[in-house]
Write a structure and sequence with these properties.
This protein has 689 residues and is of the alpha+beta class. Helices cover 66% and strands 10% of the residues. Helix 2 (9-26) packs across helix 8 (192-210) and helix 19 packs antiparallel against helix 20.
């Protein structure tokens, strides 16, 4: 096949570039989903509640609070009418929905009034249609002006959507020059790094464009996938071109040199890609389906990067090899051939230290506290400032929408009063409390009636003075559910952001164990076949897993919560992306072990592989820290930081711990590895195991 590719190199290059251009255009058509609730399993209670509520009611649960300074009730009602007129707003609730406005404010219940109106500020509850956040808030902000404020789930989604595409471009604009700088220093041609990025860049465009066939991707995938694909698959291009340069020393025929380079490097590239694929593939088995969304996308990205490295890069390199030759420069990065002696000298104490901290780190990372939602908004955004202002003025009001069977107004009133009596409840909005349990629903205007009743259910909205997640919020959700069950048994539903996050916490508890187990088993099998060994996969996995446990345990020891989505994903990403470092070093160790004693082989292996490992880890770490530094989304920030720190920890594990483990466990490796050759004094070619 490679002969055909090289014979038609210009055609192959043109076809790839044309398809990449089409995919680049298609990528703009991919819908990005910012609602994490959509990725809960269909059987989750909050998912069922949302499904029933969407079928029964024309208006959804209020998801936005809007504060507007007003001169009095008439102006507040004018603002309400203007907000109701926004096409993407399906409902607006204010004081007039809970109280007859013919009654003077002074005669109304003070607590009720101050829920909606306080010292010249009116607070409205809005329902912004899902997927219409951008057009909705363009009009809402125009109506309320700079003096107004807005907060809520829809505001968070709007902020994330506005920032998402720009942040990906911003991260790319920062990362690409940094990667180029590393590659310019690490290579001996100014043109080579551009070819590296060109091949992987085409693969990224192909991956993003083909997402159109999936229908939609999550906001996490959209923000993280292009950067991670670049970082984890750039090695494929580097391996191939380095091999090409080596083969050119053997023959003057550049096509033949490339053919030999592909033949020689492809098994290494394939093994690297397979471990990464299986690491990402473990995410597809998560119950929380944002994992499968990201896992599938990254697997597709790695496969396309492998295709571009094996087909496009050889073709385009032969088109421009003269440019590579003309832009040669001296090597700017040291070879690091002597680092093995230094690393191995301190490797023993380092290995002992890591083995001692493995158990505490493992236990610590399994007892982390987590954030299940988007995380905190960036403090410099309008949404963050507005949220603080509204919370200080009116307190928090996290809505929980409750559906109970219709037809028992007195029971609805009892439930409303019981919910209102809960410590964290701020207010309750129901027909029985707002209109009156004794007034037939048929006697009220349809606009009022449809807020509370569907053909089969009555809807009650309880507002909590809590955050949307955390110990207090989740305890309140549990109390609300227990209270409803005491009145209606099992025939009821509850939905809302805090309820969704509560269910997410329950659903994903088992996901971490599953993802870790599957990724370790799958990668272990690949390593076993790669090295024809039982001991070597265990040694490699121990080295990388120890780095993962240490990475995850930091949050526990400093008392900081982790994004759970980031926590789940990093287990597979760090293992799948950085086990390549261990594979390369171990592969070189086994090569040298056939020619020299174990300690000498470990020193030589580190000297031969450290430069490549350093480049790869440096690029992945930069990618992670760039995501952390450029994103305003809490999940993406957390994931980026964990990837950046994890790459450095894996680098340290491979440099300081792995060689020492290989030396210590060399007898076990010899007994459990097939067809491996080990040096024996007096036997020049070594002795086969």
């Amino acid at each position: 096949m490679i002969g055909t590719v090289l014979a038609h190199k210009k055609t192959v290059t043109a076809v790839f570039f044309a398809v990449a251009a089409v995919c680049g255009a298609m990528s703009t058509l991919v819908h990005v989903n910012y609602d994490t609730a959509d990725y809960l399993p269909p059987e989750a209670p909050s998912t069922q509640a949302i499904r029933v509520m969407d079928a029964e009611f024309t208006t959804a649960v209020p998801n936005t609070r809007v504060l507007v300074p007003v001169s009095g009730v008439p102006e507040a009602l004018e603002y309400k009418a203007r907000l109701e007129a926004v096409p993407a707003v399906s409902g607006v609730t204010w004081l007039d929905d809970a109280q007859n406005m013919g009654v003077p404010l002074e005669a109304m219940d003070t607590d009720l009034v101050e829920t909606y109106y306080k010292d010249g500020d009116a607070l409205f509850s809005l329902t912004v249609q899902k997927g219409e956040e951008i057009p909705a808030f363009e009009e809402i902000y125009d109506i309320i002006g700079e003096d107004g404020a807005a907060t809520g789930q829809a505001v968070t989604a709007y902020t994330a959507q506005m920032a998402s595409s720009g942040e990906v471009l911003h991260a790319t604009a920062i990362l690409v020059p940094l990667i180029l700088a590393i590659l310019f220093v690490a290579t001996t041609s100014w043109a080579e790094p551009i070819l590296f990025l060109l091949a992987i860049g085409v693969a990224i465009l192909l991956n993003m464009g083909t997402n159109a066939f999936l229908g939609e991707v999550s906001f996490v995938t959209n923000s993280v996938s292009p950067i991670l694909q670049l970082a984890v698959s750039l090695d494929y291009a580097i391996f191939l071109l380095h091999s090409f340069q080596d083969r050119r020393a053997e023959t003057d025929d550049v096509a033949e040199a490339m053919r030999r380079a592909v033949k020689q490097s492809f098994p290494v590239i394939l093994a690297s890609a397979l471990t990464t694929l299986f690491g990402f593939g473990a995410l597809c088995f998560m119950q929380f389906r944002i994992g499968s969304d990201m896992g599938l996308n990254l697997m597709k990205g790695v496969a396309l990067s492998l295709l571009c490295a094996a087909v496009l890069l050889p073709a385009v390199t032969l088109c421009f090899y003269k440019l590579i030759d003309r832009t040669r420069h001296r090597r700017l990065m040291p070879t690091f051939e002597g680092v093995g002696k230094w690393f191995l000298r301190i490797g023993g104490p380092c290995a002992v230290f890591v083995l001692l901290v493995c158990a505490p780190a493992f236990l610590a990372q399994s007892h982390n506290s987590f954030i299940y939602g988007m995380g905190a908004l960036a403090t410099d955004t309008r949404a963050s400032v507005d949220t603080e202002r509204i919370n200080e003025r009116f307190g928090r009001a996290i809505p929980i929408a409750i559906l109970v069977p219709r037809g028992e107004p007195a029971k609805e009133l009892e439930l409303s009063e019981a919910l209102e009596a809960l410590p964290q409840t701020d207010s309750v909005l129901s027909y029985a409390m707002s209109v009156g349990a004794g007034i037939p629903a048929d006697m009220t205007p349809e606009t009022v009636r449809e807020q509370f009743y569907s053909p089969h259910y009555a809807r009650i909205v309880a507002y909590a003075d809590t955050t949307d997640e955390g110990t207090l919020a989740f305890a309140h959700v549990a109390a609300v559910r227990e209270t409803i069950a005491s009145f209606y048994g099992g025939d009821w539903y509850a939905a809302g952001e805090s309820v969704t996050l509560y269910d997410m916490k329950d659903v994903v508890v088992s996901d971490n164990r599953l993802v870790t187990l599957l990724s370790v088993l799958a990668i272990g099998v690949v390593l076993a076949f790669t090295f024809r060994s039982i001991a070597l996969p265990l040694i490699l996995l121990l080295a990388i897993e120890s780095a993962i446990w240490v990475n995850m345990s930091f949050a526990y020891f400093v008392g900081s919560p982790l994004s759970y989505i980031g926590y789940l994903i990093i287990s597979a990403v760090q293992l799948g992306a950085t086990v390549d470092y261990a594979i390369l070093t171990t592969n070189r160790y086994m090569e040298f072990r056939a020619k020299m004693p174990k300690r000498d082989a470990a020193r030589a292996a580190l000297g031969a592989s450290f430069r490549s490992v350093l480049i790869s880890a440096g690029i992945l770490s930069l990618a992670g820290f760039t995501l952390w530094g450029t994103s305003t989304n809490g999940i993406v920030q957390a994931l980026g930081f964990l990837v950046g720190r994890g790459a450095l920890l894996s680098l340290a594990a491979v440099a300081f711990v792995l060689p020492t483990l290989l030396v210590w466990l060399d007898p076990l490796v010899r007994r459990t590895t097939r067809r491996a050759v080990f040096y024996k004094p007096g036997h020049e070619e070594g002795v086969s195991s």
